[in-house]
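Let's practice the habit of predicting before peeking. Look at the sequence and jot down your guess about where helices and strands might fall. Then scroll down.
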Amino acid sequence: MRVAERLIPELERLGDELGLARAWYLASESHVIASRWDARAEALERALEHARRAGARGEAGTMTGLLAQALYHGPTPAPEAIARCERFLHDAGNDRALIAGLSSTLAGLRAMRGDFEAARGLYADALALYEALGLRFRRAARAYIGAQIDLLAGRVEAAEQELRRAHETLVEMGDRAVRPVMAGYLADVLLALGRDDDARELVDAAAATAGADDLVAHVVWRSVAARLAARGGEHDLAARLANEAQELAAGTDSLEVRAGAVLAAAAVAGDAGREDEARALREEAATLYTEKGNVVAAERVRETSKARVR
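Done guessing? Here is the structure:
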């Protein structure tokens, strides 16, 4: 960020459109690790404008795909993000890598709205393109979207398979950037399947490999570790880990990440017999999902609260 802030005024003086595109892209990268997606989107909007002025189609394609991701992860409501991604897809031309990225992003957004048929079709199209282009890392990194589609549709075993395949690919490639958060998400699914020992092993791996400033990875592994501790009767440890996850998540504008941390705290409270607290936390999570436009997740959380009251 310091480099970008120092260079952008000089690049503006020089009228270097391609340099400005790359500088704003550089600036946007600092927001990813901190999970500040609105700021990421704003910087990418500027980068994309300069790339288009420079006639740099390759850079413009990359920035369009990353902008779509920012709309997906950030607080932009799903209906608005869907509309923008559809326009991006319409304008993608024959850029197959961009089409794959946009299709997978749009698939996840469609699933939030309950349109699972369209979501699965878009995701399958994206995977076919990634395979054809030999983009193994991108295919693995996007697995969280496929897993989310499955989870929202109630297909937990399918989500486990998708995340495990991706995690194995990332391990094979020696990746340390995406693997910690993928391990955390896989641990979360294994917890839902009752495979606590396997989940604990992945939590330990995520905690050991996550960078100090990799905010989402730390939120996810702490959330899973808190629920594991609660299941084992370690309620003080569980409460501490859940509070840490919530505090870290509160510094992001990813409504889905924040909702996940709140739900983990609700599970911890419920296991400790604090059902009124758990119910309030579940409603908080449902509100966050509603704000994002994830109507499927919001409804499921509220149904869980009703079932526990009965």
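How did you do? The CA atoms of residues 24 and 47 lie 5 Å apart.
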